[in-house]
Amino acid sequence: MIDRTCKETPDFNLCVSLLNSDPRGSSADTSGLALILVDKIKVLAIKTLNEINGLHKIRPELKHALGECSRKYKTILQADVPEAIEALTKGVPKFAEDGVIDAGVEASACEEGFKGKSPLTSLTKSMQKISSVTRAIVRMLL
């Protein structure tokens, strides 16, 4: 199921890696796979927020951009992830897609705020990739 589903996403290897790293993946249906990936978005958002908080202390010149990123990643955690989980749980994938898309948009907006000198590039690129893979799977439910 994981291989077949991941072949329909923009990043087969990332998809397989993420889903195989979760014990629920081997027995999940498409909706369950999407929920696993939404959990991965949540974990990455928490990791990124922790990184932002650490950078606040050592990179005061980036205070404004880091503050903007902090707000964007809090939006991912407080709005986008809960919206996607609720929608997938209730069988309304369109709203799940909205939340997943927004997580990628928030990450992109964070990155742009640094004007090419972002200390968060690897994390924001990861969020964009995971969001893209998750969206592809959510779209299979539409």
TrEMBL record:
Naturally occurring in which organism (per UniProt): Arabis nemorensis
Entry keywords, A to Z: Disulfide bond, Signal
Pfam families xref list: PMEI
Top-rank taxon, per record: Eukaryota
Classification via Gene3D superfamilies: Invertase/pectin methylesterase inhibitor family protein
Lineage of the organism: Eukaryota, Viridiplantae, Streptophyta, Embryophyta, Tracheophyta
CDD domains the UniProt entry points to: CIF_like
Residue intervals of the Pectinesterase inhibitor domain: 1-137
One example GO MF annotation: enzyme inhibitor activity
Family: Belongs to the PMEI family.
InterPro entries: C/VIF1, Invertase/methylesterase_inhib, PCW_Enzyme_Inhibitor, Pectinesterase_inhib_dom
Name of this chain's protein: Pectinesterase inhibitor domain-containing protein
rRNA-binding keyword on record: no
